[in-house]
Protein 1
Amino acid sequence: MQWQQQTCLLTGATGGIGQAIAKALANKGVRLILQGRNESRLQKLSDSLSGEHKILVADITTTQGREKICRVAELNAISMLINNAGVGQFSLLEDTEQAVIVDTLEANLLAPILLTQALLPVLQKANQQQAAQSYLVNVGSAFGSIGFAGQSIYCASKFGLRGFTEALYRELVDTNVHVAYFAPRATATSINSDQAMAMNKALGNNVDSPESVANALIRQLEKGHARQFVGFPEKLFVKINGAFPHLVDKALFKKLPIIKRFLRHEKDVEHTAQEALS
Ligand SMILES: NC(=O)c1ccc[n+]([C@@H]2O[C@H](COP(=O)([O-])OP(=O)(O)OC[C@H]3O[C@@H](n4cnc5c(N)ncnc54)[C@H](OP(=O)(O)O)[C@@H]3O)[C@@H](O)[C@H]2O)c1
C-alpha cells in the first residue's frame, strides 16, 4: 500500500469515525480533502492533523453539494474516495416521518452511489504514471447485513450500500480501482442517540472506539480485503444471518421487548422536549 501517493476525499470527516479515519490516514502520509457541512469543525480538524490538507464544505444530499465535491475532487486528482458520511435512525417504522425516510436513504445510499459514479473517471485516471492503485471505500454497518428492529430504514440503506459495493467490486476487479466495503459494529459517536447507547448497554452490545474502527479500516486496506466486518461475535452473526436467518430471528425476538422499551422512551423524551419548547 503506497499511502504517500494517495489523495483521499473523506466524506463525513467531522464525525466520530470520520475524525479518527482522518487522523489515521494523515499519520500514514495521505493528503486529505476533508468534507463535512460545518466549516469551523472541518478547519479545527484540519489544523489538528499532521501534513497539509484541504477542507470542503458541502451537503452530499444536494445536487449543488455533490457538484462542488466533484469539482474539488477532480482538481485535486483524488485517488481514494471514502464514502463515510451517514445518518442514523432509531424509531419504529410507524413513528418514522416520511422526510426522515427520504433523508436517510439519500444520505446513506443515494449520495454515495451518485458520488461514486461521478468520481469513478477521476479514480481511474489517478496515479496512472506511478501505476499505483486507486481506492473506493464505502462505510456500511453490521446492520447492512443484519436487519434490526427500530432501524429498518437505516438497515435498508446499508443493505443497499453493501449490494452496490459488492456488485461494483465485481465490476471493477479488472481495473486499477480497488473497491472495499467496511462495516463497523456499534461505535461510540454522536450518530447514536443517548437512548440508542443506553439500549446497547442493556442488550450487552459491544461498542467500539472510533480509533479502533479507524485502525481496522487501515488494516483492511493494507491487506487488500474487499470486505471487512468489525468485531467478534458480530462478524460471526453476519455469517449466521446470511446462512441461517431463522436462528438470528429467534435471538433477536427475545430482545424485542428491551428494544421497544428504549424506542418508546425515545418517543417520550422527544414528546417531553417538544412540550417544554411549546
Ligand atoms: N457509530 C456507529 O455506531 C456506526 C456503526 C456502524 C456504521 N457506522 C457508519 O459510520 C459512518 C460514520 O458515522 P459516525 O458514527 O462517525 O457518525 P457521526 O459522528 O454522526 O458523523 C456523521 C458524519 O456524516 C456527515 N454528514 C451527515 N449527513 C451529511 C450530509 N447530508 N452531507 C454531508 N455530510 C453529512 C456529518 O457531517 P456534519 O458535521 O456536517 O453533520 C458527520 O461528519 C456512517 O456511514 C455510519 O452509518 C456508524
Protein 2
Amino acid sequence: MTHIVNTEQATAWNGPEGAHWAEQSGRDDAVNGELTMALLTAAEIGPRDHVVDIGCGTGESSRQAARYAAQGRVLGIDLSAVMLEHARAAVTAAGLPNVAFEQADAQVHPFADGQFDVAISQFGIMFFTEPVAGFRNIGRALRPGGRIAFLCPRDMAANAWYVAPLSALQTWRGSGGLPDSQMFSLADRGRLTEVLTGAGFVDVRPRPLDVPMGFGSSAGVAAEFYLGSGPVRSVLERSPELAPERARDILLDALRPYEGPDGVLIPGAHWLVTAGRP
Ligand SMILES: C[S@@+](CC[C@H](N)C(=O)[O-])C[C@H]1O[C@@H](n2cnc3c(N)ncnc32)[C@H](O)[C@@H]1O
C-alpha cells in the first residue's frame, strides 16, 4: 500500500467496520441498486473509458461501472484490505477481466497524471482529512475534459437511516443530540461547491437525490446490521450500562416503522454531484 494520511479511517475500515461491511455486502437485500444506477448514469461512462472508483469498498459500483466500460478499465481504490479482498473475489466470480483494485489512500495516492477519463464514488469520498487536497489529487488523475460523479449524504437530520436508530439509543441513554460524523462533511451545498472549485473542478453540479436506504428483509435483520456498524458500536462502547440485548430491542422498535413488503427501507437524502476537470 502507498503512503496513507487518513490513518483513523484506515484503522476503522481495516478493523471491525470493514469486516462488518464486507460481511453485509453479500446480501442482495442490502444492495442499494437504485443509487448505484443513478451514479453511473450521471457519470456517463463510455465503453472505452478508464474509470477510478474512490472508496470502492466491496466493489459493487466498480463491477457495475465495468459493464459500461466494457472495452475500458476500472480501478477501485480503498483503504480497507478486508473489503478489497471481498471485492476481488466478487470480480473473479463475475468474470470481469477489466476490473482491478488497489489498497491506497485516494487523498495522496500518486496516480499518474491524467490516467483516468472518469472518477466515481459511492459514499467513499467524504472522509478526507484535507478534502481540497483529496479532490485535487483525484482531479490531477483525470485527463483534461475528464469528469467526476459521486454520491454523498446531505444533512444528517434528513437522513432518517442514520438518525432514527441512533437517536433511539441516545434517548435511552438520556443523552442529547447526535455527535457530528465525518460522513456528513460534504452535506452543506456551499461547502461542497467550495471544496470542489478549490480543488480545480469546474461545472460543479450537486443535485439532491432522495432514495431510501435498504437494510434487509426485516427489522431483525436491520437491527443486526446496525449493531455491527461503527456509529452504534461507538454508542455502545460509551454506554457500558446498555446491554446488547436491550440495544437490540431499542433498535427493533426504532426500525419496525420502516418495515414493509420490500424489507426495511429508511429515507436517505443524498447529493449526486457531477463536475469536470478543465
Ligand atoms: C461508506 S463506505 C462505502 C463503500 C462502497 N463505495 C459502497 O458503496 O458500499 C466508505 C468507503 O470509503 C473508503 N475510504 C475512506 N476514506 C478513504 C480514502 N482516503 N481513500 C480510499 N478509500 C477511502 C473506506 O475504506 C470505505 O470502504
